[in-house]
């Protein structure tokens, strides 16, 4: 999420940093988390393109961190 907030959707660039994942896996994980966070289907999220707004990404980061800490 932080990478997308700073660099946009450069999945291949992020895959170089996360050597155990390829760009498709990273993209799918990102959109899966965004679908859960926004309670919207992926097609709707991609159509609106609001997932790139920094404030929305920041909210998503907080949401995901809270989910992880409760497990």
Give a short overview.
This protein is mainly alpha-helical and 71 residues long.
Q: In which range does the helix fraction lie?
A: over 70%
* Main structural class: mainly alpha
Sheet bearing the most strands, described?
Answer: none
Low-confidence stretches: none
Mean pLDDT: 88
Please count the beta strands (DSSP E, at least 2 residues each): 0
Could you say which overall geometry the principal axes of the C-alpha atoms support?
A: globular
H and E string: HHHHH
Would you mind describing this structure in some detail?
The protein has one domain (2-69). Helix content is 73%, strand content 0%. With 71 residues, it is mainly α. It has five helices and no strands. The model has no long low-confidence stretch (mean pLDDT 88).
Structural descriptors:
5 helices, 73% helix, 71 residues, mainly alpha
Show the helix and strand layout.
Blueprint: H1 2-7, H2 11-17, H3 23-38, H4 42-48, H5 54-69
Helix pairs in contact: 2-3
């Amino acid at each position: 999420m932080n990478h997308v907030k700073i660099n946009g959707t450069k999945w291949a660039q992020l895959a170089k940093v996360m050597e155990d994942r390829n760009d498709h896996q990273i993209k799918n994980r990102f959109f899966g988390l965004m679908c859960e966070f926004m309670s919207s289907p992926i097609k709707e999220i991609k159509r609106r393109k609001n997932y790139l707004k920094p404030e929305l990404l920041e909210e998503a980061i907080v949401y995901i961190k809270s989910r992880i800490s409760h497990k």
